[in-house]
Amino acid sequence: MKRVLIAAALFGAMTVSTFAIDLPPDIAKRGSIKVALVPNYPPMEFRDPATNALSGFDIELGEALGRKLGVKIEWTETSFAEFMPSISTGRVDAILSGFTDYATRHEIASFVDYLRSGPKFFVQQARAAEFKDMAALCGKKVGASRRTMFPAEIDKWSQKNCGGNPVQFVGTDGSADARTQLKQGRIDAAVQGNETLPYLMDLEPGAYAPVGAPFATQFTGMALPVKEKALQQAIVEALDALIADGTYRTLLAKWKLSDNGIEKATINAGQ
Predict the structure, then answer these.
(1) How many percent of the chain have pLDDT more than 90?
(2) Which one, of 52, 180, 155, 40, lies nearest residue 99 by Cα?
(3) Which fold has domain 119-211?
(4) What CATH number should be reported for the domain whose range is 2-117+218-267?
């Protein structure tokens, strides 16, 4: 296996510690990690409208991990539906695309978790006065991507808080469709990860208003093949090195994700 030496400056220390990271032989020989993504989830990953270049927190984090490991990141655009098949068939080595770590996915992929997040309700700013607290959502039409666990989380929240006046869930084709339906008045509120809302609210000033706090805890992770233990450990060590030298914190601040940061990399922390 390739031994990659990494110098990591420890917080508050003047000394530098050096350690080695093992990479699987095929990746070491190739000199690259093939990473799948769908660039439609700002600020995690998207194409810059001005340049069409890949941009976002995940892109910069992935490139930083590659530098720590001494390999190139080969970004491979695919569809959300192809994420898990791509991992299971070996078409890619990893998924780094705002992908939530759920226990139901652990049979096919192991997740190196790098971000803490949670689903959050939001409404049109013009109707914010109608939703002074989360209880006002009971009985309302709430939209969220049907491809996520948000529908299940919304249902759990509704059962716990709404009694005989449950939320009326409306499945959407992704978060962008949920926002479109919200603007059109077809739904009263929408849900998406709290890591995306500050960025979207900056892009569309005065369009949205958050309602309450995140109502569940989730982890976003880099998905890797279950059997690739060496690659999992390499990513964990590289991520911890980025946390230690301040790179991770800088990227969080740049993309307005400081509230979503973690202190240490974990594997399969999602439920």
Answers:
(1) 84
(2) 40
(3) D-Maltodextrin-Binding Protein; domain 2 (3.40.190)
(4) 3.40.190.10
Global pTM?
A: 0.83
Q: What is the pLDDT of residues 75-97, one digit of tens each?
A: 999 999 999 999 999 999 999 99
Q: What is the DSSP letter of 100?
A: B
Location of each CATH 3.40.190.10 domain in the chain: 2-117+218-267, 119-211
What three-state secondary structure class fits 58? Answer: helix
Q: What are 8-49's pLDDT values in tens digits?
A: 433 333 333 334 578 999 999 999 999 999 998 899 999 999
Q: Where are the alpha helices (DSSP H) in the chain?
A: 25-30, 57-69, 83-88, 150-161, 175-184, 197-203, 229-245, 247-254
Max Cα–Cα distance, the chain, nearest Å: 61
